[in-house]
Amino acid sequence: MPSINGHVGYFDMNTMHIALQLKRHTCDLDVDLTLPIQGITALFGPSGSGKTTLLRGLAGLDRVKQGHIRVGESIWQNEQIFVPTHCRALGYVFQENSLFPHLSVKHNLEYGLKRCPKERQQYSFEQVVAWLGLSDLLKRQPHELSGGQRQKVAIGRAILTSPELLLMDEPLSNLDQGSKNEILPYLKRINVEANIPMIYVSHALSEVLYLADTLVLIDQGRITAVGSPHDLAAQLDFGFMTSLSAFLDRD
Ligand SMILES: Nc1ncnc2c1ncn2[C@@H]1O[C@H](COP(=O)(O)OP(=O)(O)OP(=O)(O)O)[C@@H](O)[C@H]1O
User: Fold this and answer.
1) What is the residue range of the signal peptide feature (predicted)?
2) Range of 157's domain?
């Protein structure tokens, strides 16, 4: 039975708990969230609302002093524990190109595979290449790829680390609409076929509505609603949401 701080208890394997408090002069984040570890959870809110801050805190990339993070029965952070990022079973895809420029697509992907011990590897190289349609690109260097192709390789590399959770911070925001439309179905496919739960940050409402099973709304560092997109659409003033999205979409 898992134990935290001497308290013995049962933890729900199917949920994650994220409680983070951070005071900066520019940002006052205060969230306490329980989310399912399945499907795609979209974190949606205006620019500067704290989406990236929350994701980086969850990943351990920024050390938020007041934090409790549990994913299933794994404790990533509490008063005593701070598991470093490389020991958290997560993959992270950023909005900017994060491939190694001197490595071919094949070697970038293999880097992800090598980061995961053999006995924990859940997906084969061939499987991931097929899911993302990368077979024709394997010999190319990153500078020989389009922005959309580069992001697909970055996603593939993250999956090959066999993460329990995939964090995606506006992975499509630097792409044109055509590339976005091409990649979105791949994200759904990965979620279903590889069964990797994702937290997907975006301020593009169209992406969020297409992808999300669970929607988390954040504003000024506070969670304002959590639910299915369908439920929230009924609750919220969708006219406001649509104009907010049109204002914020950088297409
Ligand atoms: N390292 C930092 N130090 C101080 N303030 C920061 C730091 N990083 C972000 N901020 C501030 O924290 C606030 C939240 O930023 P964050 O990047 O989390 O917002 P966001 O919702 O992801 O925005 P966007 O959609 O524009 O990426 C902003 O006011 C930002 O200026």
Assistant:
1) none
2) 90-163
